[in-house]
Design goal:
3 copies of one chain form a homotrimer. Chain A has about 200 residues and is an all-alpha fold. The first copy, chain A, has one domain. Chain A has 7 helices and no strands.
């Protein structure tokens, strides 16, 4: 039970909260919000696991993910009016989560003997496709395609991580630096209203 | 060729009919309606099989499912004006179908050594995610997230089934009682306009 | 490196171009367009591979697909104004692509000991579900359900291919004839405004 495992479960809860909040805005019932929270939390890792043939998929082999999701679901309902005030913290936790998910995804893909490029791609999928699944199920155009620098931050963090592992054997430090990269990019992007869009905003 | 297998195939046909009717309302062509009927019928079981690594997925190993779907497709086109009058029967068949699909999904998951909680979840996925796939492909917000007590009925039926297997060894009876639970919950829910929604209906 | 492999990679590029162009029309950013191009190019084959348990899925095992997609992406951005003038060529390349993808899908399914009917279905899925995935992710009702004779052309081409392999051992010729079938059907359908829709067009 090291810190990585703890952050992984914590990130899972935060993802579930974000899914439940989105579903509540859409006026889904208590079952619908649970399903969306669930899918948001495990969607990215599930797609990664399916693509590489890691089955039964990860969360099915560990009850802790189920507990993390149900906790996130409860927190979302109990504190739904407070969470808006926690916006800044939620953003930070969410970003730590996607940073770690990217790195864990890369490591799992490398374990399955995939090439470095595809491993980084699978890391990005692990981090981003939970949100994509959430958006598809709630009938929205996935957010990462239009507004956020989300995928780019993950990709850069993943690249930094892979390069670091070539020159440094301090795994924990490498992970922290890579996650910090994701946080800095996403923070700067929002602060400076960066956009990867060639078109004028409407 | 026991009664369970027969009900499984019959449920597959009924699911296909419901998918074809939905697609016809959307004015899909004869190919589009066939694809939607197909996906509605096998979607839930396919997702379950992929998640646990039961591949090639179930229906690919048995031509009977293809025949059941094509029959349902033909029935939907031939009797499309009559089916509305059969509403009550269709509702009953559909509910028997989701009840059985839940139980079969649970049994398959337990065979793959999954925990009881995850097996019940996979049972619910087997029964409900064909409809979710249908709704995603027809660009609708999945019905089970908003209006129906569908998933809850499956979950309760699945729970009843698992509890019964602990105390009774009459498999057939256990299955019938679990399916009856699903039917009763869904019937009462519609009769009493139960809703799991915290919000006022618009 | 035979001609089939070359056409496969070329078709992958053309599919990626079509996905990128669709995403550009939706004003996705440079990351969003890349993801949609990617998904359009590999979506159909990925779904086929997942259903039969061919994992890690095909493209993850061969870097050439990644290169083909990135090339298609670059071409779409560099020549975006010209591609409209190339409409006729694009249509031809796209149709050759879906024809070949159908046949390759059938061969892979037969290798996995699936029945002939299911192999043809998986061939059609290989060719058509990249576009379905693109449409779902861009929040559109999949085109093949409403307007195009796309799936029917693939199905017929696949059937012709399977029948030819029973009577002729000239594999290359069989493939060319099957692809020509797909081209002819799609060309005639558009020329004659065939529609498989029973309803009047709005």
């Amino acid at each position: 039970m090291n810190w990585i495992y703890f952050v992984d479960l914590f990130g899972t809860s935060v993802f579930a909260i974000s899914g439940v909040l989105t579903a509540m805005q859409k006026k889904f019932d208590i079952v619908g919000t649970l399903i969306i929270g669930f899918v948001t939390a495990i969607g990215g890792g599930t797609i990664r696991d399916l693509l590489i043939g890691r089955v039964p998929v990860g969360w099915l082999q560990n009850r802790s993910y189920l507990i993390a999701i149900v906790l996130g679901y409860a927190v979302a309902y109990i504190f739904k009016n407070k969470i808006i005030q926690w916006k800044r913290s939620m953003f930070l936790f969410d970003t730590i989560g996607i940073g770690l998910f990217t790195i864990l995804g890369i490591e799992i893909a490398l374990d399955y003997d995939l090439s470095i490029e595809y491993s980084i791609i699978l890391g990005v999928i692990s981090a981003c496709f939970g949100g994509v699944t959430r958006d598809v199920l709630t009938n929205e155009i996935p957010l990462i395609f239009r507004k956020e620098i989300y995928a780019t931050a993950c990709f850069t963090g993943g690249l930094v991580y892979v390069l670091l592992t070539k020159v440094s054997s301090f795994t924990n430090l490498n992970i922290v630096v890579a996650i910090a990269t994701v946080i800095v990019i996403r923070y700067l992007a929002i602060r400076n209203k960066w956009s990867l869009n060639f078109y004028k905003e409407e």
